[in-house]
Amino acid sequence: MSYVKNDSGKSYHLQCTGDALETVKQHGKPTDITLFGSCFCPFVQRVWVTLEHLGIDYDYYEVDPYKKPAELLEVSPKGLVPALKLNNYNPPRALNESTVIIEFLEDLASSSTRRSLLPPISDPYARALIRLQADHVNRTLVPAFYRYLQAQEEEKQIQGAKDFVESLGGLLQLFERAGKESVSTVGLWTEGELGLADVMAGPWIFRATNVLVHYRGFSLPEGVKFRAYVERLVSHPTFKKTCSTEDLYLDSYERYAYNRPNTSQVANAINSGRALP
Ligand SMILES: N[C@@H](CCC(=O)N[C@@H](CS)C(=O)NCC(=O)O)C(=O)O
User: Fold this and answer.
1) Which superkingdom, per the lineage (predicted)?
2) Are 267 and 146 in contact (CB under 8 A)?
3) Whose Cα sits closest to atom 10 in ligand 1?
4) Where are the alpha helices (DSSP H) in 117-264?
5) Pocket test for ligand 1, best of 96, 264, 272 (most atoms within 8 A of CB)
6) Class of the 124-271 domain?
7) For ligand 1, atom 3: residue with the closest CA
8) What is the Rg, in whole angstroms, of the alpha carbon atoms belonging to the chain?
9) Over the stretch 255-270, which tens digit does the pLDDT of each residue have?
10) Which residues line ligand 1 (CB under 6 A)?
């Protein structure tokens, strides 16, 4: 049984709301780095949180990635958000792919703001443990989220929920391992600072608390420690700055929840069993 009965035909939003809108308003003036973003997009959100956390100056530019305007294609070959336009080059250069952008911003911050989402470079093992978490998020958690949300038949939804919970479990195991094997203070799991894995996973965990709850009747895994982690994440001031109000996500994800044809490149990849774009 799908949790919400009928597709009401809602479309994705084209402007941030709530806290995210306030942040957009503070980042309207041209700077060296323009973030091409879309208000509902989790891949954008992870880059956006990174910019905020690292204290790197940027301006936010909202685009509709499904319409693929020429200015987006110029900075992102597949027409996907997020993308960065680097205005200090002449002519300007660009970068796409959220994970690559995040690494770029980390490198940039290492010689400017000196903030980071990773333990210090003097502790390569601790850094690798966090990267293992991030890798798990990208290869397992993110696809499991979409498979679950796009599943239409009851059986597939049950399997989707199981797989999603299992991928969360895998992340927690990696968190626990890092807690045991390193003394790093980076990462919300150990009540440290916001870290790379939090930023990588955050947008989907957040959407699990609203979109998956609404469309799939999902309940987050029990466990005091896990629930406390999710609370620290979604209420983290830097993360919250990039969050719109719940209605924006519910409306924007109805397309996925009913698996409407041609919803997105991600949705098509999930439907055809291919790797995500
Ligand atoms: N691998 C890309 C994925 C980005 C992505 O799929 N973005 C979506 C919005 S959430 C998009 O631009 N979709 C446009 C489309 O499907 O044509 C990344 O990590 O940056």
Assistant:
1) Eukaryota
2) yes
3) 41
4) 124-136, 142-150, 154-181, 196-207, 213-216, 224-234, 237-240, 246-252, 254-257
5) 264
6) mainly alpha
7) 277
8) 18
9) 999 999 999 999 999 9
10) 38, 41, 43, 65-66, 79-82, 97-99, 264-266, 277
According to DSSP, residue 262 is labeled T
Q: In the chain, where are the structural domains located?
A: 18-110, 124-271
Q: Which of 67, 265, 268, 276, when mutated, tests ligand 1's pocket best, judged by the most ligand atoms within 8 Å of its CB?
A: 265
CATH code reported for the domain at 18-110: 3.40.30.10
Q: How many Å lie between the centroid of ligand 1 and the Cα of residue 233?
A: 23
Residue 84: phi and psi, rounded to 5, are: -115, 135
Residue where the block lists tokens 């990773």: 118
pLDDT in tens, 81-106: 999 999 999 999 999 999 999 999 99
Cα–Cα distance measured from residue 161 to residue 212, given in angstroms and rounded to the nearest whole number: 9
Model pLDDT for residues 105-124, shown as the tens digit of each residue = 999 999 999 999 999 999 99
Structure tokens at 40: 């509902």
